[in-house]
Amino acid sequence: MPSTRASATTVEKKRPHISAQPFTWDNWHQHINWLNFFFVILIPLYGFIGAYFVPLHPYTALFAVFYYFNTGLGITAGYHRLWAHTSYKATRPLQLYLAAVGAGAVQGSIRWWSRGHRAHHRYTDTDKDPYSVKKGLAYSHLGWMILKQDPKRIGRADVVDLDQDAVVIWQHQNYLLSVTTMAFLFPALVCGLWGDMLGGLVYAGIIRGCFVQQATFCINSLAHWLGDQPFDDRNSPRDNWITALVTLGEGYHNYHHEFPSDYRNAIEWYQYDPTKWMISLWKQVGLAYDLKQFRQNEIEKGRVQQQQKKLDGRRAKLDWGTPLDQLPALSWDEYVTETKQNGKALVAIAGVVHDVTDFIKDHPGGKALISSAIGKDATAIFNGGVYDHSNAAHNLLSTMRVGVLTGGGEVEIWKNAMVDMVKDSAGKGIVRAGNQVTQVVLPHGSAVVA
Ligand SMILES: [Zn+2]
Ligand SMILES: [Zn+2]
User: Fold this and answer.
1) Which of 31, 99, 420, 429 counts the highest number of beta carbons within 10 A?
2) 264: CA distance to ligand 1 center in Å?
3) Where are the transmembrane segments (predicted)?
4) How do residues 106-161 score in pLDDT, each as one tens digit?
5) How far is the CA of 174 from the centre of ligand 2 (A)?
6) How far is the CA of 85 from the centre of ligand 2 (A)?
7) What is the pTM assigned to this prediction?
């Protein structure tokens, strides 16, 4: 829809924009963008009422589906990927075709649509995003069009390139002519070839237009709400094949927001992206050129980082034992006293003191062995002297930490281990298998693998 910018400038200037005022019985009609309401709600409503009275001719049905795909492509391959994102270049005949069928999709001029869409990418999920999903699913789908928006609130977007594009300018200046011709007149005339002008207007014109509108609106709503986030989860865009199915391939929206100038939305061969297929077909026949594509290396980097972030989240939920620098330090004599005189079941391994009280009865190697280690330095015994404990055993042991020994050479081992420790995205140390602080490689020959 064309914007109704500055239509309210004659109203008292000091008042806040209507969108900032609450709905009342007196002002509700001022909240509605009536031009958009007419094209998005009222006309489709007439169409559905008309369908009750006008029978559906099979040729008209076929043409409606065919024209649905064409006008849909006008938005996805034209408005979106060609003009809003300049992800490829089109020859003049292709530009004219896309501008024409795009007008037939009843979604405003290329210039208006692209300006809003560039702001959407730049300010995703913020107040400056014209269709921010943070304002609710219904708002991101339809509300943003039907309700007036403060043009000053919507983020700035550069459209200098579009202002130099003759096709874009012509279509913008002659939008009402373009939309009525391409959305309603043209399909009616085509269906007139088999004597069904009225059916053409109702089915291939109005109802088809309504479906294209609703499908495209799903990119702003559903694609920001439903699906996976394989590349970045800091914002709302999501990948989902269902959204892709209704939007001619625009459903891989998490990818699209990460790599917006890529002419593809789906990057896997099995994903549904007919818009991409058409663009590459146009390239084959010489209608499109300079198709932009991000390097696979960059795409994989994003994917790996997101996987890493998810992994960090899972790791953070696990008990890896109290960090060593948060444990109380005790001398060797204090350690021995705690066990011998105070009767605590403490075992020192690699300079770390563990309380094994609750574990003695569960020790797979039996009570006797673990009890014999109490009050001693069990580093060698634990690391192969008697039994070369498993990775899982080292992990479990770390959860029993209660203190660290000072003064011993072994303290230096874990100090070094802590410094060298790889940190996750939250700054927490990553304990890799085989790299726990209690894992000590004994001098050759001292290990007895049981
Ligand atoms: Zn988006
Ligand atoms: Zn986009």
Assistant:
1) 99
2) 15
3) 34-54, 61-82, 175-195
4) 999 999 999 999 999 999 999 999 889 999 999 899 888 888 888 788 888 899 99
5) 25
6) 7
7) 0.82
